Amino acid sequence: MKKELEDKLIKAFPNLYIDCDSDKGPMETCMFWGFECSSGWYKLIWDLSEKLEALIIKYKEENPGEEWSPRAMQVKEKMGGLRFYLSGETDEMSKEVEKAEQIADETCEECGKPGALKHRGTWYRTLCDDCRDKENYEDCERNEDEEDI
Predict the structure, then answer these.
(1) Which of 6, 49, 72, 129 is the most exposed place for a label (fewest CB within 10 A)?
(2) Domain boundaries of the chain, sorted by first residue
């Protein structure tokens, strides 16, 4: 993701992305590496972050004695899908992440338009047809008997 978009997310949602502005290294949080996906998912991640930030604030209000609170541990693309890992999430947070990951399965990672899973050899990405052509990916053809990736 473009650095300026990452910076906007980190600034707008300080409770969720608390580890991004810390001295923690890659052995403590994968957020050390930033957002490991393309900018087409920015709006999707923003919408999810709004929901999670509110839930974290609620968590902190309900647990005033705790120094620790849920937070993003890693945000990335893997096998064409969004993976958004939290540490210590509540059931409600997990449900919001699951919804966003499902939306990402139909959203081009490059531009944010409607997309589908594409491949180039063993590499998989969710792309619209235009970005598929630019990136030299092919449509994934599946039999109904095939398992999800």
Answers:
(1) 129
(2) 3-105, 106-142
